[in-house]
């Protein structure tokens, strides 16, 4: 991912666009065949040479063209960039790079989704306590938890696919997008060769709502990874300890406290999501350019887009590693269910009493009173209810999982889809 955003990679893509433009012009008979041959033979200019020339020109595209044409005879060099404006080159190359970057990121997201699905299947029948408002609610399974994250990442993958289609476009239409000095055939040919769509109504630049769509999709991906990371961090706490991040033998958690086993990967993933949300805001600011174009977006994109794509790729990759190597303590999960003396079964008891004919308010209050007794440290729910004349049978987590097969079929559909 990082290699896509180097100066040298950018100039290589610019060179490819210039060659394709000249090739299209030659097909139209505008550029002589001999000049095309010289243009095609020219090397990609070195980034250092472009930078050197830019110190005298204060214009990156003109400096690139000057460096590129140093390798082309003068009679042929005059045909380079014919009929084009700067952003015909820049935005068409940018669209090509963005498409490649989306593909790299999509591969990482697909790997994360697969890791979540595999772990969800492996732990589908691993009971654990579900929590709402941070408090014990009802039993669920750890596989169910992970499946929720898997579907979220699947939605992120589909958003990324849509965003790729939005940004992988080019335009070679001249200074205000009217094709005033260039045949529209050139644009169709170049974009076709690069696998790009064409900006439908160009103004010189590709519309920046497209790039905003991409960085919104990336920010949502970051937020979904953050949700997963927050869950593993919460379940890693000393008093919970239901999961633990994968560790190497070299792991050291604290410079002062040798016993610490900190969830640093999850914390890192959480912090990176904050960066991605910031970049998404920057992309929205770039949408409203002056008239047919201005340059206010350029400085932002040089920082925000490479950083956002690279951060997202790292985040998705690190999250997949975390999920793949996650240590799951099934015994601790089961102990957490039993920790409150059966309070997690209160809703099942309420349903049974209602089905048996007890009035709702009376049943609710009786169970709540018994639960308060248990919460104060006195016995378990069954005993507390029995003292009030309510006898309940044994309750197990499976009571809440009677329709879990419906959810598993949905997970199987996702697993089959990604296969």
From TrEMBL:
<dbReference type="InterPro" id="IPR004769">
    <property type="entry name" value="Pur_lyase"/>
</dbReference>
<dbReference type="GO" id="GO:0006189">
    <property type="term" value="P:'de novo' IMP biosynthetic process"/>
</dbReference>
<dbReference type="InterPro" id="IPR000362">
    <property type="entry name" value="Fumarate_lyase_fam"/>
</dbReference>
<dbReference type="GO" id="GO:0070626">
    <property type="term" value="F:(S)-2-(5-amino-1-(5-phospho-D-ribosyl)imidazole-4-carboxamido) succinate lyase (fumarate-forming) activity"/>
</dbReference>
<dbReference type="InterPro" id="IPR008948">
    <property type="entry name" value="L-Aspartase-like"/>
</dbReference>
<comment type="pathway">
    <text>Purine metabolism; IMP biosynthesis via de novo pathway; 5-amino-1-(5-phospho-D-ribosyl)imidazole-4-carboxamide from 5-amino-1-(5-phospho-D-ribosyl)imidazole-4-carboxylate: step 2/2.</text>
</comment>
<dbReference type="InterPro" id="IPR020557">
    <property type="entry name" value="Fumarate_lyase_CS"/>
</dbReference>
<keyword id="KW-0658">Purine biosynthesis</keyword>
<dbReference type="GO" id="GO:0005829">
    <property type="term" value="C:cytosol"/>
</dbReference>
<feature type="domain" description="Adenylosuccinate lyase C-terminal">
    <location>
        <begin position="341"/>
        <end position="412"/>
    </location>
</feature>
<feature type="region of interest" description="Disordered">
    <location>
        <begin position="245"/>
        <end position="266"/>
    </location>
</feature>
<comment type="pathway">
    <text>Purine metabolism; AMP biosynthesis via de novo pathway; AMP from IMP: step 2/2.</text>
</comment>
<dbReference type="GO" id="GO:0044208">
    <property type="term" value="P:'de novo' AMP biosynthetic process"/>
</dbReference>
<dbReference type="Pfam" id="PF00206">
    <property type="entry name" value="Lyase_1"/>
</dbReference>
<comment type="similarity">
    <text>Belongs to the lyase 1 family. Adenylosuccinate lyase subfamily.</text>
</comment>
<dbReference type="InterPro" id="IPR022761">
    <property type="entry name" value="Fumarate_lyase_N"/>
</dbReference>
<keyword id="KW-0456">Lyase</keyword>
<dbReference type="InterPro" id="IPR019468">
    <property type="entry name" value="AdenyloSucc_lyase_C"/>
</dbReference>
<protein>
    <recommendedName>
        <fullName>Adenylosuccinate lyase</fullName>
        <ecNumber>4.3.2.2</ecNumber>
    </recommendedName>
</protein>
<dbReference type="GO" id="GO:0004018">
    <property type="term" value="F:N6-(1,2-dicarboxyethyl)AMP AMP-lyase (fumarate-forming) activity"/>
</dbReference>
